[in-house]
Amino acid sequence: MLKYVAKRILLAIVTIWAVATLTFFLMNMVPGGPFLSEKAISPQATAALEAKYGLDKPLMQRYFTYLTDALHGDFGDSLKQRGRTVMSIIKMKFPVSARVGGISVLVALCLGVPLGCIAALRRGKFLDSLISVFATCGIAVPSFVVCTLLMYFLGVNLKILPTMGLTSWKHYIMPVISLAFYPTAYIMRLMRSSMLDVLGQDYMRTAKAKGVSGFWIMFKHAMRNAILPVVTYVGPMLAYTVTGSFVVEKIFVIPGLGGEFIGAISGRDYTLIMGTTIFLATLIVLMNVVVDIIYKLVDPRIKLK
Amino acid sequence: MKQNPLSFQLKLNPDDFLPATEEEKQSQVVMRESVSFWKDGMRRLSKNKVAMVSLAVIILVMIFSFIVPAFYPYSYKEQFKGANHLAPMEYSAEEQARIDAGEKVFPHIFGTDKMGRDYAIRVMMGSRISLIVGLIATAIILVIGSLYGSVAAFFGGKVDLIMMRIVDIIYTIPDILLIVLLSFALKAPLETLKGIPGFSWVGVVGENLISIFIVFALLYWVGMARMVRSQILTLKESEYVTAARALGVSNGKIIRKHLLTNCIGILIVTTTLQIPSSIFTESFLSFLGMGVAVPLPSLGSLASDALNGINTYPYLLFIPAVLISLIILSFNLLGDGLRDAFDPKLKH
Amino acid sequence: MSEYLVDIKNERLSFFTPAGEVKALNDVSIHLKEGEVLGIVGESGSGKSVTAYSLMGLTAHPGKLLGGSLYFNGHQIEQLSEKEMRKIRGNEISIIFQDPMTSLNPVYTIGNQIMEAILLHTEKTRAQAKDRAKELLELVGINEPEKRLKQYPHELSGGMRQRVMIAIALACEPKLLIADEPTTALDVTIQAQILELMMELKDKLGMAIIMITHDLGVVASMCERIAVMYAGKIVEYGTAEDIFYEPKHQYTKGLIRSIPRLDTKEHERLVPIEGTPVDMLNPPKGCPFAPRCEECMKICLREMPPVTNFGEVHYTQCWLNQKEERSANE
């Protein structure tokens, strides 16, 4: 177990390093530099700016400086938002995204798991068809479609929900639905098929032959096994939530890190792009490590390997 | 001995106790006919109504995006003066005048956008882009993934170990994050490439589209590679391959006859399910403005453009939004149908 | 109150599959006294497991009982509610399944799974249940029970797991133990150990056993009564002596001929039963075994043979015996 954790963490560190390196060199590949878009800057002023941000030094030296700084949580200053460090922007914006994303993940789990179970137990009945149709359509609708349709019907047309910002609980409803839509549908499908698989297993028959009551058979014997694949999906779901936040925060004008990232790209804020990418990648990779370790803990079968 | 009362109810002839012939015996045995894997799969697929409807929808969408535009009287970049934001089937003042003069004018079925371009042809072109991206990206993934996977599985040992570590690392890299980054970073180099003689096709395809393909080629094949590798490894160890080898069948024939025929079902299924996921990613990027270059439309960018006029022209949003969902849904359902039909492990 | 512990009369049970009705059991009668061992022999799909499962109320969907009555220890099984049935399952009737590899829940410890049965049917506290579980593991011959209780199924070998299954089945000292091919999935050496253990436990605890198997060798050594099933019917029923020394049905004869024996002469070959098992969706009109029967007559293909009795216990359903009977009468 300890060996597995060590191996997993090592792999995560390599991945994060790879992402950081790739990000750094990609950003430095872009010709013209960050100050090109601002017109009428004299060559002297450009040189001064470049010196200030260390852009005049050789590439490899900058790379190592960047990596050591990043290790200390220092991603440098934002190029466009004067006087603010990238880290301070992340610190300010990330909690907002984390709140919306966290609620969405919880909603997806709390809806997806029980509904998937119900569908499996009512296999072939009306409720199963209803849930299955929703789940099948749910994974086919891109998040931006969900966002825009919600926006139009609930926000613009019926005007029952606010379309911008994140100041009251009402503001959370549409972003959370948009972000949780796909994972909910996916978990339902996963849970349904996993539950059907478990229901056909021999140990379910053993439990029944022991005289265990219907409720306990479902709860203790079936659910506990059927939920394992859902645990493995939590990692990808977190990644989906992070990237989904790009669209959702853009559409609903939420002051979160996803919107900030998209803004940084259109504004060519190099340091902010790099910092955010590395931060989000680290977050996703580490969460995946945690999820994998949790999976090993809940499934006794792979403990020894 | 007790007599059974039942025997009196039956009228029995002495003839009945004569031995039965072999033919008489065989006529009683009803055997279910045995069918080949492909025939069986195709039969099951054609019986699957949902999958067949999905296939029909996909073919229909393909006709609309690849064939119809050739005969369509408008072009996707053509701007009509005074025809901005026409409602569906509405004519501009100038066109109305021509109609009044007795001329025949093709209607704007879905209206026009804010630049006065016919929306129907833009939607068709948009779904063409989406489909092309989906198909080409999937082809790239299929080729790279299956090559990589089979090389790893075939060489085994250290080669396999190192190759799979690389896959592990790529697998954990958050893909969309990197796509966004790459399409941003590759934009400029590709633009310069476009200027070099012999590379003008880059401009035709669009820099963003090429960077999307590059990202797919760099990152997305890992799932396919893992699947192909594990499939080949299980097959390599399976008893019928051992049996074939014991019988002295040549390696080439084992690969052709056993490995390929057994892999191909699962490859078809995975490939079909990869198409919608590629389309999904493309539309996501286009929506964020990092997909195809203007004036080329994509379903994602059409939806994104329509967002500004959502109050007054909601249909501009609905049409691409519904279409993209329909395309993804159809491919998903077709993939599910193929899996049910061709994955022997699911056979009950 | 019947003199029998188990009394199944004329049971008819069908599975209504999408492809059509499968008559899994057709007029099956079985009875068993306390402490007796009955063997049910037949090939897969002959209905032997279905008979046993229906006695526990475990008939799988889409199976449906169409007729007959099932008595167990004074209860009329088919009329019990699910709740009443649960009190019997695992308590008065227990079952051991074929495949110990898949019959234990992989995510719970052995101890948890044995204690579950004890806690369900007795008033014992958790500590008492744990002691009982330890006792049971010792009873089924597992060493270091304390340590095993904390282990997961995947940490044990197949033979070990089957012992655990037996321990679970015996947890509440059942009156009837159903063993559904308990040794099929095990190595030959382990098979003998498990069968020996079962006989030992039977003598110690005095329960009745229904032994379901396709292996005549297994029933020969263990069972007092044997029922031979083919295509949902009991084609021959009798004591072990009747079946082995005076088989009357062609299928039974075929089965016995196909057992390897030590006393065969060098050049004598095993005789297999030709043909394939019946397609239960399209059963033959007459005797189901007729198409594979060497002595098949015209009547066999047309009509189901009636029962011919040979004494108190032994009976068969075969036209050949009817023919002999008729010629004896004439």
3D structure, described in words:
The complex is a heterotrimer of chains A (305), B (348) and C (330). Chain A is mostly helical and 305 residues long. Chain A has helices at 2-29, 43-52, 59-71, 86-121, 126-138, 143-157, 169-199, 202-210, 214-226, 228-251, 257-266, 270-298. In chain A, helix 4 (86-121) runs antiparallel to helix 5 and helix 7 (169-199) packs antiparallel against helix 10. The model of chain A has no long low-confidence stretch (mean pLDDT 85). With 348 residues, chain B is an all-alpha fold. Chain B has helices at 6-9, 22-27, 37-47, 49-71, 93-100, 119-155, 157-172, 175-195, 201-205, 207-237, 239-246, 251-287, 299-306, 315-342. In chain B, helix 6 (119-155) runs antiparallel to helix 7 (157-172) and helix 6 crosses helix 13. The longest helix of chain B has 37 residues, at 119-155. In chain B, 37% of the residues are buried. By secondary structure, chain C is an alpha/beta fold. Chain C is 36% helix and 24% strand. Chain C has 13 helices and twelve strands. In chain C, the strands form two sheets. An eight-stranded mixed beta sheet of chain C has the order 6-7-8-3-9-10-12-11, sandwiched between helices. In chain C, strands 2-1-4-5 form a four-stranded antiparallel beta sheet, covered by helices on one side. The longest helix of chain C has 18 residues, at 188-205.
Brief summary:
Chain A has 305 residues and is mainly α. Chain A has twelve helices and no strands.
Notable traits:
heterotrimer; A: 305 residues; mainly alpha; B: 348 residues; flat
Fold topology:
The complex is a heterotrimer of chains A (305), B (348) and C (330).
Chain A: H1 2-29, H2 43-52, H3 59-71, H4 86-121, H5 126-138, H6 143-157, H7 169-199, H8 202-210, H9 214-226, H10 228-251, H11 257-266, H12 270-298
Helix pairs in contact in A: 1-3, 1-12, 4-5, 4-7, 4-10, 5-7, 6-7, 6-10, 7-9, 7-10, 8-9, 10-11, 10-12, 11-12
Chain B: H1 6-9, H2 22-27, H3 37-47, H4 49-71, H5 93-100, H6 119-155, H7 157-172, H8 175-195, H9 201-205, H10 207-237, H11 239-246, H12 251-287, H13 299-306, H14 315-342
Helix pairs in contact in B: 3-14, 4-6, 4-14, 6-7, 6-10, 6-12, 6-13, 6-14, 7-10, 8-10, 10-12, 11-12, 12-13, 12-14, 13-14
Chain C: E1 6-17, E2 20-32, E3 37-41, H1 48-55, E4 63-72, E5 75-76, H2 82-88, E6 93-96, H3 100-103, H4 110-121, H5 126-139, H6 145-149, H7 158-170, E7 176-180, H8 188-205, E8 208-213, H9 216-222, E9 225-230, E10 233-239, H10 240-245, H11 250-257, H12 298-302, E11 307-310, E12 314-317, H13 319-329
Parallel strand pairs in C: 3-8, 3-9, 6-7, 7-8
Antiparallel strand pairs in C: 1-2, 1-4, 4-5, 9-10, 10-12, 11-12
